[in-house]
Amino acid sequence: MLEREGFRITSNIGGIATAFVAEYGKGGPIIGILGEYDALADLAQVSGVTEHMPTAKGAPGHGCGHNLLGSGSALAAVALKDALANEGIAGTVRYYGCPAEEAGGGKTFMARAGVFDDLDAAFCWHPAVLNEVLTKSANAAIGARFRFKGRASHAAASPHLGRSALDAVELMNIGVNYMREHMPSDARVHYAITNTGGDAPNVVQAFAESIYSVRSPHLPNAERLFARVKKIAEAATMMTDTSMTVQIIGGCSNVLPNKALQDVMYENMRRLGPPAFDEADLAFAEEIREAALTEDDVLASVAPDNISLKDVFLHDGLLAMPAHEGCDMGSTDVGDVSWIVPTAQCQTACFAIGTPFHTWQLVTQGNLPAAHKGMVLAAKAMATTAADCLRNPEIITRAKAELKQRTGGLAYRCPIPMEVAPEDLRTKAV
Question: 59: which DSSP letter?
């Protein structure tokens, strides 16, 4: 589609086969529009129903709305291209096809490769339940795989000859859980046991594996906490007489908001107005809330600042810009882009209020007219804000000055070591 619109396509960006850049125009300023399109395992779901109906066992589904995100960003890029052509505006628009936001930090690898270095501004969005300009930061994160190796033996006849890698995994988890009381309250540690060594309880398991994710509002803090997690893993090997390897598999930096761009985006969203939901949109939102969402789901969507919206099924307003930025507990590889180039994001109402992310309840709404209406609003918000930057370069000048102030003059430092290559996650999606 982008090729048909006159964009020049470059594939295999940053060593990632599914990453690409589509470019139109020449010279500066250069505007980047970020798109994502990765799905989540085990979330395939029939569209437009109010009960759990997987389309295929274990198949992926768009539980975070990245089908909308990627498409909406592409729509914004094409609209901006049309503005360049129709108005004779100087500049270049780039659409960045960014895979693996959920699992691998695709933009982080792309940032490490320098593909955002010459941008003057970048824009992104996310499907959500509320319409707003995103002003908060988000946590930096580090993801790593811990592989433990022991020695197999008969668990009854000769357990003394075995060294259990599974015991090491469990002891590491126990140690990290004890650490939780003694780490900063704004940090998070998560884990998944991805290989228990086998299904036979009468075998001392020689191999076992887990994946850990560590989050903190600032990358140096996340790195310090991750170092403590590694020490606990090393202690687990000492207790079990096993060995271990650690492999960094992903990471991302904290988001640096940019008020200079956010203010322009907010004015455009205010002028554009909310999505024009109709009776059918509202009826389905009410149906899915009654059938598949809980009161806690609804409160989690709106509390504490927007509790007045708890009885609204689809958001038809625009949240005011908050006085304080704050920090979301989640993480996004948009953070890495925001350290390199001034970046602004919005979110728009695509789903019923109360819909949790990463659930079938979101997947079932992701291809409905209401979701498409929210997507179009986001595309318009990004395109109009980017066009304002091209028409008025002083906006970019202010945004760059703000970025310099927020970084304190520090250069971007990728959280993923140079020796770590991006994984091909296509075979792991199901």
Answer: -
Domain coverage including residue 402: 8-139+254-407
- Cβ neighbors of 4 (< 8 A, separation 6 or more) are none
413 domain residue, yes or no: no
The three state secondary structure string of 339-369 is: HHCCEEEEEEECCCCCCCCCCHHHHCCCCCH
Q: Report the C-alpha gap between 429 and 412 in whole angstroms.
A: 31
Domain-terminating residue out of 235, 251, 267: 251
- Cβ-Cβ contacts under 8 Å for 413 (sequence gap 6 or more): 219
Lowest model confidence (mean pLDDT) among 62-66, 293-297, 420-424: 420-424
> What is the 8-class DSSP label of residue 22?
E
Same domain, 146 and 286: no
State how far the Cα of 181 lies from the Cα of 356, in Å rounded to an integer. 28
The mean predicted confidence, pLDDT, of the chain is 96
DSSP SS3 for 399: helix
**Which tens digit of pLDDT belongs to each residue from 379-423?**
999 999 999 999 999 999 999 999 999 999 899 999 999 999 887
Six-digit token string for 43: 């979330």
In what order do the strands lie in the sheet containing 188-195? 188-195, 207-216, 140-149, 243-252
Give yes or no for a contact between 33 and 106, defined as CB atoms under 8 angstroms apart: no
C-alpha distance from residue 282 to each of 286, 349, 369 (Å):
6, 12, 11
User: With 80 as the cut, is the pLDDT of residue 429 above it?
Assistant: no
Identify the helix (H) or strand (E) that includes residue 179: helix 165-179
pLDDT in tens, 83-120: 999 999 999 999 999 998 887 689 999 999 999 999 99
